[in-house]
Amino acid sequence: MDQTIADETLPAVVVPRRGWILIAALIATFIPAVESSIVATALPTIVGTLDGFDLFSWVFAVPLLTMAATIPVYGRLADIYGRKRVFFVGTTIFLVGTVLCGFARSTEMLILYRAIQGFGSGAIQPIAMTVIGDVYTPTERARVQGWTSAVFGLAAVVGPALGAFLVQHVHWSLVFWINLPIGLLAIAMFAILLPETAPRRRHSLDYLGGVLLMIGVGALMLALVQARTLGIAQVLALAALGIVSLVALFAHERRTPEPMLPLAMWRRRVVALCNAAGFGASAAMMAVSALLPIFVQGVMGRSPAVAGIVISAQSVSWMFAAFAAGRLMIRTSYRLTAAIGGTALVIGAAMLILLGPETDPFWPAAAGFVMGIGMGFCNTTFIVAIQTSVGWHERGIGTGSQMFMRMLGMSVGAAIFGAIVNDGVDRRLPGTGGLVNRMLDPTTRDQLGADMLARLGDAVGLAAHDAFVAAFVIALLTLAATLCLPARLNPTRSPV
C-alpha cells in the first residue's frame, strides 16, 4: 500500500512499495556489515600471508578513516541533490575498491585499495539509513531500526563462517569479491524503487568545506595511527595541519550559505551527546572487532573458525538488543535505553580484561555477546534520537553526523589498540614482528616451536590486556555521556 512521507518539513510525496524500499535499504546496509565481519575474521590470515603484522591496524583504520572523512560530505550532498544519485556514486567507488583489494599482493597495496573502498562506503549505509528515516515516522523508525540491526546479525552469522571457509579452502581474495553482486543488486533496486524527493533549486555547494573536513580529519588520524613509527617532527606537523584545517573549517562554515557541516545542528544537546556517545561506543567495540581475533588465534592458539564464532556472538546479540531497544525507547526514554547499552559496554570490556591464554573460548564469546548488547541499545537509540531531532533538509547530514562519529570512533579505537599492541610486543620482544606474522598464519604457526610460541603468546597477550583496559575506560566515558541525555525524551516526544 502507498504511504506518504510523514514529516511536515517535506512536501507531500507518495512513496509506493515502501516495504520494497526498506528491503533495498537493508541490502545496502548489508554491504558494509558483511564486509566488516568477513575481513575481521580473515585479517589474521591475510596479514600473515602478506607479512604485514606491524601494519594490521592500518587495514582496519584506513577504510574507516576515509569513510569517516567522506560521510558528512555524502550526507550533505544527499540533502542537496537527493539520496539516489549520491548513493549510486558512492557504491560504485566502493565496488571498484573491492575489486582491487582482491588483487593486492602486499599489505601496502591492500591498505591503498581499502582506502578507495572507504571513500565509496561513506555513502552506502548513511544514505540507506537516511532513506529509512524519510519514509517512516519517528515511532516507526524505532521499530524499523531493529531490522537494520538484524542485517548486521545476519552478516555476523554468514560473514565469519564464510570468511573462515574462504581463507582456509579457497583464497582470501574472495573475501572482498563476495560483495560485488550485493552492491549491484542494491544499485538496481534503488534505481527502480526510490522516488527522488529533493526540491529542484540552485545550490551553492561547499567544496572548500568538504576539502577542509577531509584534510583535517585525515591529518589528525594519520598522526595518531603512525605516531609510533613517524618522527616527532612529522607527527607534530600532521597534528598542526589537522588542527589548522579544522579551525579554518569552523570559521568557513559560519559564513557559507549552505555549509558542509552545519554547526547549529551540532549545538543541539541531543545531537551532540548522541554523537559523542556514538564515538565512544564504536571505539570500545573495536576491542572485539580488531583485537579479539588476534587474541583468540595468536594467544589462545585457536583456529580462524573459532575466532569467527567469537566475533559473531557480538553481532547476534546486537541484532536482538536493537529490536528490544526500539520497543523500550517508545515506552520509556532515550536516556534509559542508551544507559542500558553503556552499562553493557562497561561489563563486556571488563570481561575482556580477564582473558588469558588458557581461557575457554566461551569467555571471549560471552564478552563479545555482552558488548553486542551494548552496541544494539546504543546505536539504535542514537540514530532514532538524531533523526527525530532534525527536519528533512537536515536528515542526511544529521544521520551522516552519527555515522561519521561511529566511523571516527572505530578508526581511533583501531589506531589506539593497534598502537598499544604493537608497542607492547616491541617492548617485550623487540624485532619479532615477522614471527608474530607466522604465529597468526595457521600454515606456519607450528613451525615456530613450543617455546617461541609461548613467548610470543605471552607478549601479545599482555599487550592486548593493556588495550582491553583502554577499552574499559572508553566504555565508562560512553556511559557517562548517555546519562546526560534529556530524562523524558523519546520518539513520541520530539524536541522539534
* Series of secondary-structure elements, N-terminal to C-terminal: EEHHHHHHHHHHHHHHHHHH
Main β-sheet, spatial strand arrangement? 1-2
CATH topology of the largest domain: Growth Hormone, Chain: A
Main sheet attributes: strand count, strand direction, barrel closure: 2 strands, antiparallel
Structural class: mainly alpha
Strand content: under 5%
Topology summary:
Elements: E1 3-4, E2 14-15, H1 18-49, H2 56-81, H3 83-101, H4 107-121, H5 124-135, H6 138-169, H7 174-177, H8 180-193, H9 207-225, H10 232-253, H11 263-266, H12 269-299, H13 304-331, H14 334-353, H15 362-389, H16 392-428, H17 433-440, H18 450-482
Helix pairs in contact: 1-5, 1-6, 1-8, 1-12, 1-13, 1-17, 2-3, 2-4, 2-9, 2-16, 3-4, 3-5, 3-8, 5-16, 6-13, 6-15, 9-10, 12-13, 12-14, 12-15, 12-16, 12-18, 13-14, 13-15, 14-15, 14-18, 15-16, 16-18
Describe the structure.
The protein is built from 18 helices and two strands. The chain is an all-alpha fold. It has helices spanning 18-49, 56-81, 83-101, 107-121, 124-135, 138-169, 174-177, 180-193, 207-225, 232-253, 263-266, 269-299, 304-331, 334-353, 362-389, 392-428, 433-440, 450-482, and strands at residues 3-4, 14-15.
